[in-house]
Structure formats: structure tokens, C-alpha cells
UniProtKB/TrEMBL annotation:
Primary localization class, coarse: membrane
Disulfide pairings: 155-188, 156-172
Bilayer topology annotation: Multi-pass membrane protein
Native source species: Seriola dumerili (Greater amberjack)
Family listed: Belongs to the tetraspanin (TM4SF) family.
Any one GO cellular component localisation term in the record: plasma membrane
CDD domains assigned: TM4SF9_like_LEL
Name of this protein: Tetraspanin
Keyword terms: Cell membrane, Disulfide bond, Glycoprotein, Membrane, Transmembrane, Transmembrane helix
Amino acid sequence: MSRKHHHLKGAEVSCCVKYFLFGFNIIFWLLGAAFLGIGLWAWAEKGVLSNLSSITDLGGFDPVWLFIVVGGVMFILGFAGCIGALRENTFLLKFFSVFLGLIFFLELTAGILAFVFKDWIKDQLNFFINNNVKAYRDDIDLQNLIDFAQEYWSCCGAHGPDDWNLNIYFNCTELNPSRERCGVPFSCCVKDPAEDVINTQCGYDVRLQGELDRQKYIYTKGCVGQFEKWLQDNLIIVAGIFVGIALLQIFGICLAQNLVSDVKAVKANW
């Protein structure tokens, strides 16, 4: 009897693992809910929720998708990990670890494929940017994203300013009635430190000038090349971020599996 009592006492769920996993996931759960809420609010403001068919109307990328997808994944993972740890629910804990493992595997696969097929990735990036250049005026969120990218990387278009010929408002055809004809967005303009207010008309007619004259007013390097340069200059930081995320995922999987083992060990002694 004493041996049986000792055996029962020896199997127990680690409170440290349980509540650490709970605290770790409740943060992700709340962040996921916040991202999801922001995404749905943005769609409601743009009228997407009242007309779901408009999701496919945009020719370019809608940045709200990032909030919806990332928020949804974080919400599901956070819920499974948080409730699974708190209630010692092995099904939710297994779901959490398998889902997290699947995401880790997809990230690893994407990283390997990106390295092996980097030329193909570069072509797809060109295609992606050019599609978004075409849809620049179609969505305010996309417009803000492109402006941010061009300002941050000091670039203009995928390969250069002439890529803006793809956009109906900026192309240089004689039949184009737009005032922005042969121009570029203000985010392509070289900033004057003395200016406190952004001149949104600084890119008007700038592509009517020669290559050397353009350089005085706008960035002439493409965003693909500038992004590649930025990656090379910040390779250690970018690699460190990805390694850190991978270690967090592995750590979360290990904690969940450890808690599952503890719960099974306790149940086996009942």
C-alpha cells in the first residue's frame, strides 16, 4: 500500500510548465484577437464585410490580409495553448504542438526553397511589385504600404521609375488625361530636410526629364535591388530574428509535449 501511495505521489503535473505555457499563450491569444479585430475593422471601414465579393476585386495585395491571417493563426494557437495548459486538455495541447510544428516545417521549407530558387523568387517579387504598382490607387492600405516601402528603401518601382507606366494614372501615353501623367508618387521623391510639410506633387512630370535630371528629384533605383541590398546589409539581424522565432516555436512544442506527458502519467495512475 505504501509503495502504491509513493507511486501516486511521484506522478504530478509540473505547475511551472503549466502556468508558463498558459502565460506564454495568453499573450499570443490577446495579440491575435487584437490583430483580427483590426483587420475586420479595416474591412468594415472599406465596406468589404458588406460586400464580400469585393475581396477579389483588388488587383494587388490588400495589406489587411496580413492582419486577418496572422491574427487568425495567433488566435487559434493562443486559444489551444492557453486553454489546453489551464485545463490540462491533452487534445488541445497536441493540436497546439502539431499546428506549431506544421508552421515551423512550412517556414523551414520556404527558407530552403527561397535559397535554392532565389532567381525564381526574384522574378515573382518583380511580378508581385508590378501588380501592386498597377493597383496603387485602388486601395488606400496598399497605397500606404507602397509609399512606406519606397520611402524606407529609397527606391521607385520594381526596377526603376519607368515601372510606373504600368499604372493608368502615371503612364506616359498621350491619351492619358491624368495630371499625374509621366510622374511618380510623392514617396519616390528625394526628401528635402528643410521641408516640414510633404509635397505630394513633387513627382509630377518628372519622367519627362532625362535620367541625370531625374536623380536630383526622385530615387532612380528599383525596390527589388534596394531590398536585396538591405537584406545583405542586415543579414545577421534578419537571420537572428528567424532563428529566435524558430527557437520560440521549438520551445513551445517541447513545453506542450512535456505537459502532455505529465498529464498522461497522472491519468495512468488513477
